[in-house]
Amino acid sequence: MAVTAVWLALVAAAVCWEIACHRPGSRWTGLADIGSRMWGSRPGRLLLVAAWGFLGWHVFARYTLPG
Amino acid sequence: MRGPAGIAAVAGIAAYAWWAVGLTPFTTTAYVAVALPVAGLAVAALLLPVPSRAVRSLRSAGRTWYRALPWAVLLAVAVALEAAGLGLGGRSSSVPTLSTVVDHALAWQVVRFVFFLAWLALGWAPVVRRAIFWPRPGR
Question: What CA–CA distance (Å, rounded) separates A52 from A59?
Fold first, then answer.
């Protein structure tokens, strides 16, 4: 249960940090900025598509319901 | 994409998402349902023009690696937790992997539907944004 809370806290921290990175005057790089930079080159695009595809394949085609 | 065509497109995407998340996992149909939007995005990624080197240099001016350091820390913590969970067999209830945590939420089709739509939006955002903000000349 404690580790589940840590996972949820990590996700919440990532979301909050991404929002903070987009605030006016922020000097920190958000995930959207990293993604945009990678999208600017073909190898970067294909890497993004591959990572996105792997995420979808793992979550929606290979999930195991508990119990 | 506005008007009836836009509404039809959104309705079609929602119908596809609902169908896709209703499929039994680990089946060929489920794999194909995920593979189709991935293949479409791969084609779009290859066909869309890439910014010139000059434009890329301009866009990256002033960016340094340490400004992405917090993400590296978050990723390191996530990888360590995942490794610990996998080291315990991958199905431990005391140290679950991220998959195990997410699997509990995936028990409901409505939740899988919302996640699927969010996943589609995340992947196709660059293509849709380009279609909206960089229309073809003459329009």
Answer: 11
Contact between residue B101 and residue A7 where contact means Cβ atoms under 8 Å apart: yes
**What would the pLDDT profile of B84-109 be if each residue is shown by its tens digit?**
888 887 777 788 888 888 888 898 99
**Residue B5 corresponds to which amino acid?**
A
Give contacts of A 8-37 with B, CB under 8 A.
8, 10, 13-14, 17, 27-29, 31, 33-37
pLDDT, residue B123, reads 94
Specify the pTM. 0.82
Size of interface A-B (CB pairs under 8 A): 123
Sign, CA dihedral B122-B126-B131-B132, equals: positive
Closest CA to B131 of B4, B9, B38: B9
Query: What is the sign of the dihedral through the CA atoms of B64, B67, B68 and B70?
Result: positive
Q: Which of A61, A60, A54 is nearest to B41 (CA)?
A: A54
